[in-house]
Fold this sequence. Notes:
The chain is of the alpha+beta class and 231 residues long. The protein has nine helices and ten strands.
Amino acid sequence: MAEESLKESPPEQIIKSRKRVQDHGEVFTPSWLVSDMCDLVAQECERIDSRFLEPACGDGNFLTEVLYRKLNTVQRHYGRDALNFEVYSILAVTSLYGVDLLPDNVTRCRERLYQQWEEAYLPHATSMKEGCCAAVKKILERNILCGDALSLRQADGSPIVFTEWSLINKCKFQRREYELSALLDEQGESDLFSFSLDGSTQLWQQDPDDPTSRIPAPKKEYPLIDYWRLS
Ligand SMILES: C[S@@+](CC[C@H](N)C(=O)[O-])C[C@H]1O[C@@H](n2cnc3c(N)ncnc32)[C@H](O)[C@@H]1O
């Protein structure tokens, strides 16, 4: 029986073409290894709001595994409460970020994450279903970006900007945008503040309780919005 089921499952494809391997180092991580690596940070993978950024995310092998684990947590905690299942499953999606050079990988990564969320969500859908589905598509458009994780720029040359989604009062999201370069900049440089190229935008702010701190300042901040109206 075990042998039969082994025969039935096709081998996992870890490369698409020799050219893509040569040009972009595109070799996908097999699922057993993804799972073993996620086990190393198992608690974070299960925490609904812990944020993950994968800088060369491919078509999402790691991000889908993390979403799978987060959605299991949502199911465990809110499986019998449709409204909370809805909002916390969306929160799980907001916590995942990816960048990849290749547009087809980015599209596939968004699709896989969307399908995974939708499959878990539909049995719990409420009257806000349409809005929620559109919201998750919008979140994935913002969180999974086509760009270069080394230059920190998108394909059109603009800086990679990520959105922080914070859940407020269990039903609204606060949306703030940050340049990835500011988020990755190391602490402890000689200048306390740095500025964007046009000199107008302050990228850093201080924690009032800690004068030596440098926390990134958002480039843009939006008013609070109901989760089903995000799109
Ligand atoms: C080794 S694959 C890994 C994909 C995925 N992380 C996985 O483990 O299955 C490498 C991916 O990195 C992408 N990549 C290579 N250089 C990159 C760069 N500078 N910025 C963003 N993505 C890059 C490629 O397009 C490819 O999809």
